[in-house]
Amino acid sequence: MPLDPQARAMLDAMAAMPSPDFSTLRAADYRAALAAMPGFAPGDAVAAQQDLTLDGPAGPLQARLYRPDAPSEGQGNVALPLVIFFHGGGFVLCGLDSHDNICRSLARRSGALVLSVDYRLAPEARFPAAADDAVAAVRWAAAHAAQLGADPSRLAVAGDSAGGNLAAVVCQQLRGSGIALRHQLLLYPWVDCSDAAAGSASYRECAQGYFLSVAELAWYRAQYLATPADAGDVRASPLHQRDLRGLPPATIITAEFDPLRDQGEAYGEALQRAGGNAAVRRWPGQIHGFASMQGVMDAASHVLDAAAAALRQAFGASSRQEAA
């Protein structure tokens, strides 16, 4: 399918702007430049949101809890499903605010609580800091589910791009831990930080000009990994995990014009070969990061509808009203 016209218009606008020089770019400067850019639409309204602090492996982590609906009269504080969400940004950029719209929309449309986690970023905190924080956050959420108003038997993880990596890593690392995750929702995930990824067709076909470039991925990797050998660690490249048995069911959504497309789909196929329930859907005509682009891309709302439907099904509710 050809590139979505709305994606084409956004890429054309970006092409008129100066491109970062990844040979000299500093993380702090890139963050500042992105912070100065106008944001996307704010996402769906939710009943409440609350900033929290949770226990991390190297100190407190900031998080934000979204409640989709106010309890109905006489219903009381019914325990809702809980989705622990990890934002994208190449392990270097973004945070609670940048992904506020995705989390609000997922909460509202799935009928679940969403806990967005502000894990440590590279290069200030290199691998495996983000992975360690993600695992610790899910352990904390499971232990404090009642305090959050959540049902500890209905937990899931979700993330986009680098956050999809962390969600996949969490499922692998917590396998057999007693924390029963119902689902993993991976939006255009980055699951292979190794040089092997460069051999994929999507790396070649979408190397530049489609929002996320191969040069940018290399820069992220250089910021995140402490040594090149770290790329082979399954906590950095969950696609390299040889034993994928017994992992939670997965929904993996990729974008047609994304260098990460093939590795996300390969991870879904690997889960299927291991006997897992993995639904893989390639979004036609779209680019990396499109779920965040609410108000600019119609596809952002459509993909969030699909993601929320997968979560509702995983939690055993066929509609938002049933979930709430």
* Span of the ends, CA to CA: 38 Å
Helix-strand sequence: HHEEEHEHHEHEHHEHEHH
Low-confidence stretches: 318-324
Relevant CATH superfamily: Alpha/Beta hydrolase fold, catalytic domain
Individual helix count: 11
Task: Kindly give the count of domains.
Answer: 1
How much of the sequence lies in strands comes to 15-25%
What is the fold named in CATH at topology level?
Rossmann fold
* CATH class assignment: Alpha Beta
In round numbers, the mean pLDDT is: 95
Broad structural category: alpha/beta
* Helix share bin: 25-40%
Q: Output the radius of gyration.
A: 18 Å
The CATH architecture designation is: 3-Layer(aba) Sandwich
What is the strand arrangement across the widest sheet?
1-2-4-3-5-6-7-8
Global geometry: globular
Summarize the main sheet: 8 strands, mixed
Number of strands: 8
